[in-house]
Sequence to fold (114 residues):
Amino acid sequence: MKATCTALTFKPGERCVVRDTVKVDHPAIPGHFPGYPVVPAVVLLDCVSRALSRLHPDASIAHIEHVKFLKVLPPGQAFDIVLSASGDALSFDCVNDAGMRFATGKFRAEVNPR
Fold:
C-alpha cells in the first residue's frame, strides 16, 4: 500500500535564506558546457529542494508551478536561496553575491509520511 502525502501549509511571511555553492567538481558540471562550465538547471532545483528541507525537514517539492532561469551560475560561486511563503505555495529566488537574481520560481510542497 502506497503512503499518501499531506499538502504543506505555510505561515504568512514564513521565510528562509540558505547559502549554497555547487562545487566545481560536481559530477553534472563536465559537459555543461565544455570551455564554459555552468551549473545545470536540475542541479539548481535540487539545491532549492534541499533548502526546503531546512525549512521543513519532512517536506519535498510536489509540484513546480513555474521556474525561470534568468542568468547562468558558474560552478564554485556561492549564492543564496531565498524561500518565502506565497499563499499556499513557496516562492524562491536564487541570488548571487552581487544581488543579481539568476533563478526564480514557485512550487507546492508536501509533507512526506514516515
Q: What stands out?
A: Confidence is low (pLDDT under 50) at residues 1-5. Strands lie at 6-7, 15-20, 59-69, 79-86, 89-96, 101-111.
